[in-house]
Amino acid sequence: MRLQMHWSKPGNTVRTTQANIENLMDAREAFDLLCQFLNFNTGEDDLRRLVGSLTPQDWQELLQAGRQHGVLPLLHHCFRDLKEASPLPEPALESLRSAYLNATGRNMVMLHHAGSILQAFKQHGLDVIPLKGLYLAEAVYPAIGLRTFSDLDLLVRRSDLDAALHALQETGYRLTTWYDPADPNQDIKHLPPLEKEGWPLVELHWSILEEDAPFPVDVEGIWQRAVPARVAGADVLAMDKLDLILHLAIHNTYQHKLRGGLRSLYDIALILHQNPDQINWPGLIERASGWKMERVLWLTLCLLRSLLGTEIPQAVMQQLEPQLPDLGVLEEAQRQMVLLDSEAPLTPDLAALSQTSGLVSRLKLVWSRIFLPRRVLARIYNVNPASPRILWCYARRFGELFKAYSGSALRLAHRDQVILAGANLELESMRLKEWMAGG
Questions:
Q1: Residue 365 pairs with which residues in a beta bridge?
Q2: pLDDT band per the 50, 70, 90 thresholds, residue 10
Q3: pTM reported for the whole predicted model
Q4: Mean pLDDT of all residues in 158-183
Q5: C-alpha distances in Å from residue 203, one per residue of 109, 125, 173, 194, 377
Q6: 317: pLDDT confidence band, cut at 50, 70 and 90?
Q7: What is the per-residue pLDDT for 341?
Q8: How far apart (Å, rounded) are the C-alpha atoms in residues 316 and 42?
Q9: How far apart are CA 257 and CA 427, in angstroms?
Q10: CA-CA-CA-CA torsion sign (27, 28, 32, 33)
Q11: How far apart are CA 226 and CA 91, in angstroms?
Q12: For residue 377, with 0-12 CB atoms within 10 Å meaning exposed, 13-18 middle and 19 or more buried, which class applies?
């Protein structure tokens, strides 16, 4: 596999060391093995052969990859019927059992709290659509312990936002940082996280994508097409299947640049795998076109086919395929998933710094990251942007950025190969995102 894709901009190639190649090979083998176990086309006999062929080192790497991708409970589910016919090593079995039981216990607590919150919304006459893990764990996955999630994402109508916030505050929740409802807030899609001691964080959405993003998501259409559902013992609404697929695709593939790993990809695979005859493919393509996210959906479906064996009609792929398809895009997307946690982590700004030449250009980049718009800084430090204290926040931000990133910046200046590899990975991720947006 090539580490530098041919669609990258000239002059941005980072020299690949032998250690980087070995790192990629080891990560790729574990990733491929993980995909084989989760692949919908892997039969029971195939599972037995795979299990029987693994060495203790293979198990260690498989469990590590499963942990990174958030799918250990799913692996436990895959092996549940094979324990007698093809016994798993006891340490591996215990790790998987523990992951599944912990996820089940945690999700039961999460759903209990979610039920109380959803009932509070109902008492205030508010419609709500549970998003992502909260909905998927109970409504899509066959057992609630198979899909982990860490907070509660809830979508309400923008006109109901103040009332929904009030309902949460009545239950004891409070905003974690500054928020001004009078601000356009086009660069965010939900209120600052709300917290309550002993309860999960809540993110109260009015949209599934920032309004300044390059995709005109039809939020009003989502509400019009929403269907009745029951989550955490409460009557709620849920996205229709096509909106759900598009939301998960744009959230994982574009917004989070595939950092959700196989867990987020499996969400979509499972939806498509259940009752595949009920998928309205022409409607999905039409809706994706309306949201201008054909490239996002095409790339997501390519990954589903190649990694998890999801059956996608060829005619669908042909209709979505970009006019000038570049197989390097798919290859790079897979590499981003393989190296999920394998490279030195770098922020997009540090990655950009590695490609910026000239002192003036570098100073401009650093300056732009320190002197953020006041409303953005206000959210970071929970300070009213009109307060004189906001000026002190700029000095505080400089100190925090220097402490957090000066070491990495120095390593970049000395052309450290590990940090450069991390920068290269982040730069490719940024270009992949630009490509999905039509750039």
A1: none
A2: very low
A3: 0.87
A4: 93
A5: 17, 19, 11, 6, 19
A6: very high
A7: 65
A8: 24
A9: 11
A10: negative
A11: 45
A12: buried
Task: Judge whether 251 and 132 are in contact, CB under 8 Å.
Answer: yes
pLDDT above 70: residue 267: yes
Per residue, the 3-state secondary structure of 120-140, as one string, reads HHHHCCCCCEEEHHHHHHHHC
Three-state secondary-structure class, residue 85: coil
Asked whether the beta carbons of 12 and 420 are under 8 A apart, the reply is: no
CA separation for the pair 6, 118 (Å, rounded):
49
423/255 Cα distance (integer angstroms): 19
Under 8 Å between Cβ of 206 and 189: yes
* Distance set, CA 192 to CA 47, 111, 175, 231, 334 (Å): 44, 21, 6, 23, 32
- The closest alpha carbon to 138, from 63, 261, 236, belongs to 236
Say if residue 421's pLDDT is above 80. Answer: no
Domains and CATH numbers, the chain: 18-99 (no CATH), 106-239 (3.30.460.40), 348-436 (no CATH)
User: Residue holding tokens 């744009």?
Assistant: 250
Q: Which of 205, 168, 213 is nearest to 189 (CA)?
A: 205
Q: How, if at all, do strands 174-175 and 194-195 pair?
A: antiparallel
Single-letter residue type at 47? L
